[in-house]
Amino acid sequence: MQLNGEDQCLKAAQDCSLYEKCGSLRSEYVLACIKRMPGTSRCDQHKCHWALQRFLERVPEEYSLGVLFCPCTNTLCGERRRKTIVPSCSYQDMEGLQPNCLHQQSFCRRDDLCRSRLADFLYNCQPSPLTASGCLKDSAGLCLRAYAGLIAVMQ
Description:
Elements: H1 5-18, H2 20-34, H3 45-58, H4 61-68, H5 75-85, H6 101-110, H7 112-124, H8 140-153
Helix pairs in contact: 1-4, 2-3, 3-8, 6-7, 7-8
């Protein structure tokens, strides 16, 4: 039976919950990214990044990529997936503003790990209308892994 996008996302979340390591690390990063620091309306961004990195580094890709990149077919599913991949706490600054892509690029130029992950992303995710995957390297899997690696180091 073919699952639609919404059902695939639900199944990915359920599969993650059933695999103890995925479920516990996912809960850890969700909590770190929504729990407010005392006296503020913000989460501890450092803890949020750390927990998200732990999830991406320690959970097998069959679970982590399924949760983060399941195909959505409607806006509500897409918004839930976006909040899972990049909770607002992970990128908003102290005033609640969102940094733009130039801010992120500037950060990656100064940070060795981020610079390496950005290079991997740019190499593996070059677009191409001539391949089935849409990627010049014709490997959507390599691109998703590179993107997940980049998410884990973004500040």
